[in-house]
Amino acid sequence: MKTQTSSQSAYSTFLNDLNDQKVQQVFIKRVGGVSSQETRLEYRLKMALGGKRYFTQLPKTQTVDELEALLSRHQVQFTDLSDNAANTAASLVGLLLSTGALVGAFAWLSKNGGMSSLNNPMDSTGKTKARVYNNTNTSSKGKAKTTITFADVAGVDEAKQELKEVVDFLKDGDKYRKIGAKMPKGVLLVGPPGTGKTLLAKAVAGEANVPFLSVAASEFVEMYVGVGASRVRDLFNKAKKQAPCIVFIDELDAIGKSRGGNNPNGGNDEREQTLNQLLTEMDGFDGNAGVILIAATNRPEILDPALKRAGRFDRQVLVDRPDKSGRLEILKVHSRHVLMSEDVDLEVLAAYTSGFAGADLANLINEAALLAARNNRQAVMMADVKEAIERVVAGLEKRSRILTPQERKIVAYHEVGHALVGALMPGSNQVSKISIVPRGKGALGYTMQTPEADRFLMLEDELRGQIATLLGGRAAEEVVFSKVSTGASDDIQKATDLAEKAITQYGMSLDFGPIAFEKTQSQFLDNGSTRRAMGGEVAGKIDELVKQSIHQAYDTAVAILNLNRDLLERMAQVLLDEEVLEGDRLKELLAQAQMPVNTQIWLATGQVA
Ligand code: ADP
Ligand code: MG
Ligand code: ZN
C-alpha cells in the first residue's frame, strides 16, 4: 500500500465538514490500552472536493457509538478498524449485513487493490451505501451486543415505557409464552431526525442483553435487481439463528414507500421486491421465537399500509422532540462525562434550547467542551455553552425550525386562543394539551383535543363552536398584537370548509333550508367536481352565507378572548415558560374561563347579538 499523506485536523473542523456534507468516508480506529485508550479518525472528503484525507481524534467526551450515530445521520460511510475489530474480522464478517461495505473499505485502503479479482459481481460495484454498525462489544461468539441502556436515553419517557414491555419479553419470554400472549413482531419508531430512535432501539437490546443487528433500509436497495430481497432473507436467517435478538431497520421509508405510487415507470421494481420480501419474512416468523423487529422512520405517512397491518409493524411508538424538562434530562445525560464549572446552569440551557432534538443537545455539549478546551479552561463555563448554542442554532436555522422570541410569543397566544375558545364552546372536544415545542416546518404549536366519545352526529351549535375554536388562534393574535400572522392558514382553511359544509351539505342555513348543494362523494373515488349544477346567483348566496358565518364565529372568538384577557395572558406566560400545558394544571386554568352573554345567543340563533 502506498503511503498517503493525511493532514491533522481539529475535531471541530471535522464536525463542520460533516455538517457541510463534505465528508465521503470515515475510518475509526481505537488505539492504546484499556486505560489510555483513544479513538483516531481518518476521514476523506468527497472526490468532488479533491478527496483529501485528514486525521483527527475523537474527544474523550464522545463515545464511538455517538460518533457512529452522528455519521449515520449524515449518511456517511464508516468502518471500524479497531485492533480488536480487525482481529475478529472473521466473526465480524458474519455479522455484516452487506459484505460490500467491507470490500469497499479495503478497496479504498489499497487504492488500486484488485477489485477485479473478487468473484462476487454484486460486491464489485463499489457502489454500496452500506454502513458497518460496529458494536461496542464483539464477544468471542461473534454476537453483537450494545452497552447502551435506557439510562442513556432521556426525555422520551412515553416511548421508553412502551419499549419496556419488549425488553421484558426478551428477558423472560417464557412468562409470556406460558400465558399464550403473542408479542408484537414489529415496533415502528416514528419521529423527527435526531430524537433518539436509533439510540432507543440499541437501548432495548442493551437492556435485554441480546444481540443487536442493525441495517439501514437504503443498504438493501442496490443496483442489481434481486440483491435487496436476498439481503433481507439473509438478515432474517441470521436473526433467527441468534434469537433472542433485535433486528433494527433504520430509515424504513427507503424501502417501505407505498407500492405502485405515481412513478411513471411503474415503480421501482427493486425496491418493491425488497419490500415484498420483508413482508414475506415478517409473516413467516413467529414473534414468540424471540426475534423482535424494530424500525425507524421520520416519514410514517409515506409507508406502505401493508407494513402497518396486524402482525407486522402493528405497534407505533412516537419519539418526539423533547419539551423543556425533557431537554434538561438529555443535557444531564450528555454532561455526565464532561467537566462542567459551577456556573453552568442546565436549567437555563434547557430553556434556551427550544426546538433542539436530543442529537442537537449532544452536539451542543460537545461543542461547548471543544470551545472550553480551545480556551484552555479546566472546565466548561457558561460562556462556552452560550457560544456553542449560537453555533448550533446557526446550523439549525438552515433547517428553519428555531423560532425567534417574537414568533414564539405569537405562537403561544395563538394556541391559548384555540384552547380558551374551545373550552367554552359546545362541540369542541376537551382540550387536553397545549404545546409550543416546535415541530419542524409548518406546525409551530398545537392544541390537542381529545373527544369524549366518538361522535357521529354534530348539532348546529356544535358546528358553530368548532368553527369559532378554529378561529380562536387568529383571534388571539388580533386581540393581543393587533395584527395577524400567516400562522393561521390551516385553521382558516378548515373553518371555511366546515362553514361551507354546514350550508351546502348539512342544510343548516335558514335561507336555503335542507337542500344539499354538494353531491356526497364516494369514499374511494375522487372524481372531480362535487357541487351540483347551480345558478350563479345561488353560488353567490352560498359564498355570502359562508362569509357571514365565518365572520360571526370570528367575532365570537374575539369577544371570548377580550372577556378573558387576563386568563389569556397568564396562560400564555405559563406556556412561554414551560412550553407544554396539560393535565390538572390546564384544567384548572380553563375552568376559570367565562362565557360572554352574546355568545350564548349566537350559539342558539346563529346571529351575533
Ligand atoms: P434518530 O435515530 O432519532 O435520528 P439518534 O438515536 O441517531 O437519533 O440520535 C443521535 C445521537 O443524539 C444519539 O447517539 C445521542 O447521543 C443523542 N440523542 C438523541 N436523542 C437523545 C435522547 N432522547 N437522549 C439522549 N441522547 C439523545
Ligand atoms: Mg437514527
Ligand atoms: Zn391554529
What does this structure look like?
It is a multi-pass membrane protein. It comes from Leptolyngbya foveolarum. It is found in: Cellular thylakoid membrane. There is one protein chain. With 609 residues, this protein is an alpha/beta fold. The chain has 5 domains: 6-82, Signal recognition particle alu RNA binding heterodimer, srp9/1; 87-119; 125-318, Rossmann fold (3-Layer(aba) Sandwich), CATH 3.40.50; 326-393, Orthogonal Bundle (Helicase, Ruva Protein, domain 3); 405-605, Methane Monooxygenase Hydroxylase, Chain G, domain 1 (Up-down Bundle), CATH 1.20.58. 48% of the residues lie in helices and 12% in strands. It contains 24 helices and 15 strands. It has helices at 11-19, 64-73, 83-87, 89-95, 99-109, 157-171, 173-179, 197-208, 217-220, 227-242, 253-256, 269-284, 305-308, 324-335, 346-352, 358-374, 382-398, 405-424, 460-481, 489-504, 536-563, 565-578, 583-591, 597-605; strands at residues 7-8, 23-31, 38-45, 53-57, 77-80, 137-138, 144-145, 186-190, 212-216, 245-250, 291-297, 315-318, 430-435, 446-450, 580-582. The strands form 4 sheets. A 5-stranded mixed beta sheet has the order 1-4-3-2-5, sandwiched between helices. Strand 2 and strand 3 form a beta hairpin. The longest helix is centred in the C-terminal third of the chain and has 28 residues, at 536-563. 41% of the residues are buried. Mean pLDDT is 76; it is low at 83-143, 262-266, 452-456 and 522-529. The structure holds adenosine-5'-diphosphate, magnesium ion (MG) and zinc ion. Zinc ion (ZN) binds at residues 414, 418, 473, 488, 491.
